[in-house]
Amino acid sequence: MAVPETMTAADKPELRILPLGASIVFGVGSSTGNGFRKPLRDALRYDGFDVNMVGTRHNGDMQDWDNEATSGAIVSEIRSYLQGSLAYKPSVVVINGGTNDCNRNIDINNIGERMRLILNDIWGAPDMANTCVMLSTILPTADATGALNRITANQQYRLLTEQLAASGK
């Protein structure tokens, strides 16, 4: 979402952000349990946005700690968990998912299609056709199997985002 620097806080839309994924999104391994969520929220608030993190799960020491992330979740499970947060009608969904699929070697050749189902669920939900989705590639992993599968998964995620961008998403 490009925001002109001359835009006042009153002109900026309220952001209902759904952090969606597994342990990385939940904040596992971070000293505060917030992971990237608090720095993201703080940066947007500093820029004058009214931010509300949404989701059915809670973790970390931040005040607005809502998210939809479950440690160990694979992409198909993340899709199931998403259903509980669609009622919040997030305006932004930040997704990091697939590391567990990569580490466990779960149908890597179709991970992009499983992610496409998540995106279709978001955009197909009532009043969410224009939701901004930020899909992360898979972060580096120390797991040998995961590291190899990450290459294939990231290629599929990049292709998926290119296809969606070409179709106007």
TrEMBL record:
<dbReference type="GO" id="GO:0004622">
    <property type="term" value="F:phosphatidylcholine lysophospholipase activity"/>
</dbReference>
<dbReference type="InterPro" id="IPR013830">
    <property type="entry name" value="SGNH_hydro"/>
</dbReference>
<dbReference type="InterPro" id="IPR036514">
    <property type="entry name" value="SGNH_hydro_sf"/>
</dbReference>
<protein>
    <submittedName>
        <fullName>Killer toxin subunits alpha beta</fullName>
    </submittedName>
</protein>
<dbReference type="InterPro" id="IPR051532">
    <property type="entry name" value="Ester_Hydrolysis_Enzymes"/>
</dbReference>
<feature type="domain" description="SGNH hydrolase-type esterase">
    <location>
        <begin position="20"/>
        <end position="166"/>
    </location>
</feature>
<dbReference type="Pfam" id="PF13472">
    <property type="entry name" value="Lipase_GDSL_2"/>
</dbReference>
